[in-house]
Amino acid sequence: MADIILHHYDLSPFSEKIRLALGYKGLAWRSVKVDPVPPRPALDALTGGYRRVPVLQVGADIYCDSQVIFRALERMKPTPSLYPTGEGISKALSLWWDRATWKPAIGILVHYIGEHLPEAFLQDRKDHYLGYDISKSAMAPMLPAYVQQMTSLSQWLSSMLAENGPFLTGDQLSAADLSCYHSLWLLRANCGAEAIDAQLGLGRDITDWMARIAAIGHGAVSDMTPEEALAAAKAAQPEAPAIGDNDPSGIAAGTLVTVTPDDNARVPVTGTLVAADAQEVIVAIDSGAAGRLHVHFPRAGFEVIPATIGAASAA
Q1: Do 161 and 109 fall into the same domain?
Q2: Looking at residue 182, which CATH number applies to its domain?
Q3: 30-53 pLDDT tens trace
């Protein structure tokens, strides 16, 4: 199998859950660090312009969004599974937590460290990523609400742990644990664990659960440059899709489509539909720097439509 390559940056919470998943699976991987703020020309060449991080690369197959990255890791190494009690509950918890906690977590983060965030980062998130101002002064009026939301949702995690065991869905770690961990990790790592624990009323059940997850580590990792990653893609051919041609909306393989996140960073990727099912879609793009690529996306949280419709909607 080709090298497993993760394009990420250190403080990205979504990258942290993938780093932990790689460690949990015991997979060796290559690390390509990207800038928190675009431009990212090498990564754009691999993804067709997808705006978010992390991105997983295996040869000429590119996986965008943690949902489909988890699915790819399950295919590469089925055990230990990220879905020991089935996919449904873990995927639902993951999508809920990612979306429900993202803005409150940012609001609390900037309360503690907002003055240290570069202006270019703040401007990029306002203009191109989130669509709202995340500077400390802009977020400050809603801080009480953000604390209330994070406290409430964290108590739900406590209830799950009390009912199910050492992890959210039972005796074994699941993708839900990695997802629900990451925004609390972001806050505790950057704002001080003691301060966040006191602010949100996090008890030993939560902090011990987080310690169990952190102990997994990131596994065997070695550095790689963006140029080396591009060369690896160009030297490879995309794998035959593991999913069929079964798009639930009836879009036929060979159709030019756009794939766009439905929440933020709404930058469409245009490619030719290769294969699809209810959980994943694969589009082909031709990149001068990296050759022919298959770019994989999840279905939940993304819009896949024929490119002509997308162009008409944008007009």
Answers
A1: yes
A2: 1.20.1050.10
A3: 999 999 999 999 999 999 999 999
